[in-house]
Amino acid sequence: MKLKLPGNSKSLPGKVSTDEQRSSHGVNAQGNMLRASLLTGFAVVLVPLLLAIAYLALLQAPAQKSALIEQASDGYAAQQARYIGDSIATLRSRVDSAVRSPLALQAIAEQNPADIRLVEQAMLDYFPEAVSLRLLPLSDMGTADLAGGFEGLRNHIEVDLVRRVSNNEPAEPEAYQFEGQWLASLAQVTTHPRLPSRRAVVLLTVDASTLEAMLSYPQGMIGEFVLEQRVYSEGVDRDIRIASQGSGATFNASRADIDETPWRILFTPSATLIDEVSSHVRPPYEILALVLACCLAGFFLALQRSSKALESEISRIVDGAEHRTALDVHIPQLVPLAKDLRKLTLRRARMGNTSNIVPAVDTRTAGSSNTAMTSVEGPATRGLPPNIFRAYDIRGIADSDLDDETVFRIGSAIATIAGELGEQTLCIGYDGRASSSRIKGVLEKAILQAGRDVIDIGLVPTPLLYFATSLLEAKSGVMITGSHNPAEYNGMKIVLKGQTIAEGTIEKIRNIAQTGRFSKGTGHLIQRDVVSEYLDEVVSDIAIAVPLKIVVDAGNGATGHIAPALLEELGCEVIPLFCEVDGRFPNRSPDTSNEDNLSALVREVVSNDADFGVAYDGDGDRLVVVTGAGKIIRSDTLMMIFARDVVTRNPGADVVYDVKCSRNLAQLITGLGGRPVLWKTGHALMKEKMVETGALLGGEFSGHIFFGERWYGFDDGMYATGRLAEILSSQDQNLDDFIADLPIAVSTPEILIPVPDDEKFAMMQKFIDSARFADGKPNNLDGLRVDFQDGWGLLRASNTGPALTARFEAGDEAGLERIRTLFREQLAAVAPDLTMPF
């Protein structure tokens, strides 16, 4: 039986002739590994003897010296750690004494801002080592009022310190860089002795010189003392140097943690100290008798029998891979070969079949000439459609908004900006929409004429464009996709120098496209298949303990020819639904946020008794999950599942989530020992925040999930599906039982309120300026989110469509209706003619 595997057919230069390559398919025998194994066995007897001699002659005495130096270093490090810990405790005691002065207690009791400022200045005089001191009264709700911003605090680290101590949570001092210098802040809460309801937080900040002074050693510098802080970034602990004193020799540093801080001391002894300690070590003058017992292992390397066993086993492996039959491998070392061979044959069957892709239909109209556009010159004679330039991508009606000239100008502008950033090559991917092929052709011509090179990665989901810009040397690219919008839409998601661009760069593209000031040159085009590399990397990262049955609803989108193959290679049983790539979307809308579009998936999951089902939007960067019982899981609940997994293994990790997510998510993250970071909606904005904070996980309510742990930090519905399968495969519960343990609230889905694009932002600003919620705390980070004791409500302008979006959550239906009514009344006062579907 012959099995042909896909591979590179190009010949490489070497000693093997062309005829021999043809006869052996480039695979030849060289040497005899079995015979070499026998010779290796004999060497096993000699190695222990040689190692014992080398140990006595070269290692014993140096090891004793090293151990003594290490012991001394450990002592100095521990002593300095205790000293700094005592200094911090003393500083806290001084703060406590200062805040109990009559003037401070009076300011806390009256909570008059002017008096508080005077008390802050007076208290600062008692702390000459401090660069600032803040006294922040706590509201009746027990928290400092920071909803409108940082209230003069430097950054989110100081804000988080204040929040934690106000909630009676542990709050260690924390160091950070601010305006080019290291600062360290500590916070503690104080209560008025006669008015228990009057509380305040004291936030004291010192600079690096104070920390360096703590590192000074009384008897003179005997080495280098370094103060480090532990931080969590990209799934691993990192230590950042804050301050140092002295200098040390080349020797491993000793470490000692400083109690009740995230800091530790590193001490490296000086050459003088090393010489002094080493003088107390003398080599032994007597050599103890060395008794060496070498047990020779028996070798089961009968060459003839091994050769026959290998031939028989390989034949069975090849046959099992070709026919996909059950296979028991009797030589454990060959199990990876059997798995890889089966994976390659499965991928060949999946990826080699192009019948499930419906050819794109050219939808040229009056906006697209019958002659392919080859260039544009000078300023645009007509204005580019302003509505296509969104907050973090370009999107519009393909036939009218994205005609050939508009696409050519946008492509030329993108290439021009890429050149300014030093980026020579751009990756281009496109989805299965009817207009995508036309737009890709025009875009590529524009980029090439602007002097940039193009790597065409073909018809792929958006995550593979992000993957390509992470994998290849080309860190910039354009994904042609209409995302979750209807079939007549199309657009572009743009990555420049490894970052998904947002509003500022979109506006720059628009200006350059309008003026026509493009770079010129001649680029080169190549094609590259990144699908196999993507599948290999995901499969190597995710481990499924027990095979699951999963329904995959690709919605005729760009994931249809990849997602089923990926999950099958992970060992799951896949039931495909609408996995034929068809840009007309004949079976359902590509918008997975609308639960009406998921009815077929729900039926398929229940009828097939699947473990769960997953649906992707048109370009695969969003997902929605359906449980085995047919329940649709909203993305903030899905984030709770992922947060349990990620934060449990990475205590202290940041998790970013958008303003539309449940506040139960924040409480769960905090309870797990993580740090919740609330941020603006938008996939580009979320990725920026994850990079800024070093978050290991992020998610939007719309279905974008970002993994910074074990993955590249971009939104990828297929990878998120694999991570969910990995979690569930290691549990004794099904998905329905698993989510039953999570905190729940009564909530609405995302509610769309149609408002024209040119009116929505002004209307939203008017609402923010005029709305008043007496018993709620407003937050205008993104639109207006108001938190009440029993729930919250949100109203914001959509960045992707002509609408305002709203969402509400409460502890019960009565509370939910109350919050909806408050928002409805406030919005009606601003826009009385607006139809409100809530």
Tags for this entry?
838 residues, alpha+beta, Alpha-D-Glucose-1,6-Bisphosphate, Chain A, domain 3, 5 domains, 7-stranded mixed β-sheet, 6-stranded antiparallel β-sheet, globular, disordered N terminus, phosphomannomutase, EC 5.4.2.8, A-D-PHexomutase_a/b/a-III
Question: Can you walk me through this structure?
Answer:
The structure is a single chain. Strands 9, 10, 11, 12, 13, 14 and 15 form a 7-stranded mixed sheet that branches. Strands 25, 26, 27, 28, 29 and 30 form a 6-stranded antiparallel sheet that branches. The longest helix is centred in the first third of the chain and has 67 residues, at 33-99. Mean pLDDT is 85; it is low at 1-27 and 359-371. Helix content is 39%, strand content 20%. The chain has 5 domains: 66-281, no CATH class; 321-352; 386-529, 3-Layer(aba) Sandwich (Alpha-D-Glucose-1,6-Bisphosphate, Chain A, domain 3); 549-743, Alpha-D-Glucose-1,6-Bisphosphate, subunit A, domain 3 (Alpha-D-Glucose-1,6-Bisphosphate, Chain A, domain 3, 3-Layer(aba) Sandwich); 747-830, Alpha-D-phosphohexomutase, C-terminal domain (TATA-Binding Protein, 2-Layer Sandwich). Helix 2 crosses helix 7 and helix 8 (303-323) runs parallel beside helix 9. It has 838 residues and is of the alpha+beta class. Strand 21, helix 18 (663-671) and strand 22 form a beta-alpha-beta unit. The termini are far apart. Its cofactor is Mg(2+). Keywords: Isomerase, Magnesium, Membrane, Metal-binding, Phosphoprotein, Transmembrane, Transmembrane helix. It catalyses: alpha-D-mannose 1-phosphate = D-mannose 6-phosphate. Belongs to the phosphohexose mutase family. The chain crosses the membrane at residues 38-58.
